[in-house]
Design a protein that fits this description.
The chain is mostly helical. The chain is about 65% helix and about 0% strand. It has one domain. A two-stranded antiparallel sheet has the order 1-2.
């Protein structure tokens, strides 16, 4: 097997651009939703978890410095969007991808310090890993590493559902939904989603079926460790899981869509010739 230069792989470049366009769309959603650097201005940081990298950044006061200066926060948002546009134009600019990935990681750390809950959707940062390398062979192996981590990410989620006894109680999902949507129910919020969630709360058996389906949707990732034949099916399953999770639990999938989309472009990062 030989690896030809990536620049000669026009279909592969188009697929890489598609991934970056999705990533750009996700970050624009962050901006519209009011959770980008610009809207965290003056934020009170609650915690930064136990991750050593988070601690180092906060010890150096980097996130605090950015959000305490509105012009710098706006500049950071503009820089992310601009770099994404440049990378979409030419996905082979690996040095640009390095700076972009670092800036997105800094954004993720900043956001996690602001939120009062943990969000482990790091896909919008990790998706850039294959773009960090100039050589076609390096990109190929970087993509492989990212793909295996993606599979591990979701397969381990399914495993932990079993480990922590999520299926020991038939009303597990019903209780979770009740906790998540308590404010909606108390305020007598009306709508299709609220009505459906009230139905799940009052019908634990149906909620248990949905919990099982979510387990299966994540567990299919295990197949990807043995073959790439089902990558697209795995991708569809995981996207369906996130869409359902968004509807049922109000947990938006933004941050993971571009990451999961890597499963649809397995031939995009290298032009392999036998």
């Amino acid at each position: 097997m030989t690896f030809s230069p990536q620049i000669n792989n026009a279909p592969g470049l188009a697929s890489q651009k598609m991934i970056l366009v999705i990533l750009l769309a996700e970050f624009l959603v962050f901006i519209i939703s009011g959770v980008s650097f610009s809207f965290l201005h003056g934020a009170v940081f609650i915690h930064y978890g136990v991750d050593i990298f988070f601690g180092l950044l906060y010890f150096a006061s980097i996130p605090q410095f950015i959000v305490s200066h509105q012009w710098l926060a706006v500049a950071a948002d503009v820089s992310i969007v601009s770099q994404l546009l440049l990378l979409i134009r030419n996905p082979l600019r690996n040095r640009l991808a390095v700076w972009l990935m670092l800036l997105l990681f800094l954004y993720y750390v900043t956001l996690m310090g602001y939120l009062n809950h943990r969000n482990f959707h790091t896909g919008f940062v990790l998706v850039l890993f294959p773009f960090l390398f100039a050589a076609a062979k390096s990109r190929y192996f970087a993509y492989e590493a990212t793909r295996y981590f993606l599979l591990f990410f979701y397969a381990s989620a399914a495993f932990f559902k079993l480990w922590y006894g999520a299926f020991n109680h038939a009303d597990h999902l019903s209780i979770s939904v009740a906790d998540q949507f308590a404010p909606y129910i108390v305020e007598s919020n009306i709508g299709i989603r609220t009505a459906f969630n009230e139905y799940l709360v009052n019908t634990p058996g149906v909620g248990f079926v949905f919990l099982l389906l979510s387990f299966v949707a994540e567990l299919v990732a295990v197949a990807g460790f043995f073959t790439k034949r089902f990558d697209k099916l795995i991708g569809i399953s995981l996207l369906a899981f996130h869409v359902a999770n968004w509807f049922v639990m109000d947990l938006a999938p933004f941050g993971q869509i571009a990451f999961i989309s890597l499963l649809f472009v397995q031939k995009a990062f290298v032009d392999k010739q036998d």
